[in-house]
Specification:
Order of helices and strands: EHEEEHEHEEHEHEEEHEHEEH
Radius of gyration: 20 Å
Distance between the termini: 25 Å
Strand content: 25-35%
Structural class: alpha/beta
Helix content: 25-40%
Number of strands: 14
Bound molecules: ribose-5-phosphate
Strand order of the largest sheet: 10-9-8-11-12-13-14
Shape: globular
């Protein structure tokens, strides 16, 4: 393991530290700051020649800063003759623009894949991509982890009877079905219509929810609009308690305040994105994915299979 090196930028140093603790390693030394005009300045402290370097940097807000930091760090590592560079992106930003769904729009998920590859990334380790097909935007190896087991364990401890797992939109059915199967729960879907990038409207609920306890599951929460619309619709349909399990807490604008004032009993997220002052938000529970990422990093480093992490 002495060829293994974990380093981080400014996106989520807490998660990188926790991964290192799991691995019993010290975080690699790096200086990541800014020049006076705002350009990113990076210096790797130690010799990384021939090392297997994992750069932990989710591209969460401030997305452009974090993405650019990641690219500059990869460039520095490449020029310092690192043996192999893995971009560890527990949250892969720019993923929601993953196809041309209207004329004259970009496919940013592919653009980011190109940028990472050109910068010098040899492989990518990521978690709960917005769309699984984004894997195909890379011509380098990509390992795609899922936080489902971390959530299932926590939801089981809530001991909710008459449980129904709800997907807040049609796109999330596959994920919701996987949760329902593991928890032995019923499945329902909210028929959502997106009015604008910031506003969603819940139309109908498909499935039996009346008198049940519901857990909405999703890959990310940004404005919180989708989740709150879905919870209002569930309440109207006679659901008792409503929880939400969302992997990436992007939580923009007033999302946290809106969650605190909502019908949700609890929003369960992970630490792929740092939540400042999380102890001050009584309705938000943060689960750690550091052990899962650490195990994946260890296995990738030792050239072992990671498929057991999906069981
Ligand atoms: C949509 O396809 C996603 O899975 C999320 O439901 C959505 O992006 C969340 O965005 P917001 O919180 O702004 O409604």
């Amino acid at each position: 393991m002495n060829k293994l090196e974990i380093i981080t930028g400014n996106a989520n140093p807490g998660l990188a530290e926790d991964i290192c603790k799991e691995l019993g390693k010290k975080l690699g030394g790096i200086m990541v700051s800014r020049f006076s005009e705002g350009e990113i300045r990076v210096k790797i402290d130690d010799n990384v020649r021939g090392k297997d370097v994992f750069v932990v940097q989710p591209t969460c807000p401030p997305t452009n800063e974090n993405l650019m930091e990641l690219l500059v760090i990869i460039d520095a590592l490449k020029r310092a003759s690192a043996g192999r560079i893995t971009a560890v992106m527990p949250y892969y930003g720019y993923a929601r623009q993953d196809r041309k769904d209207q004329p004259r729009v970009p496919i940013t998920a592919k653009l980011v894949a190109n940028l990472l590859t050109v910068a010098g990334s040899d492989r990518v380790l990521t978690m709960d991509l917005h769309a699984g097909q984004i894997q195909g935007f890379f011509d380098i190896p990509l390992d795609h982890l899922f936080a489902i087991n971390v959530f299932v364990e926590y939801i089981q401890r809530l001991k909710l009877n008459d449980l129904v797992i709800v997907s807040p939109d049609v796109g999330g059915i596959k994920t919701a079905r996987a949760y329902a199967k593991r928890l032995g729960a019923a499945l329902a879907i909210v028929d959502k219509r997106r009015i604008s990038p910031e506003k969603a409207e819940a139309m109908n609920i498909l499935g039996e929810v009346e008198g049940k306890n519901a857990v909405l599951v999703d890959d990310l929460i940004a404005t919180g609009g989708s989740l709150l619309e879905a919870s209002n619709a569930l309440k109207k349909a006679g659901v008792k308690k409503i929880f939400a399990g969302v992997v990436h807490g992007v939580l923009t604008g007033n999302a946290i305040k809106n969650i605190e004032n909502s019908l949700l009993e609890e929003l369960i997220i992970t630490d792929t994105i740092p939540l400042p002052d999380h102890k001050k938000h009584p309705k938000i529970k943060v689960l750690s994915v550091a052990p899962l990422l650490a195990e994946a990093i260890k296995r990738i480093h030792k050239e072992e299979s990671i498929s057991c992490l999906f069981d």
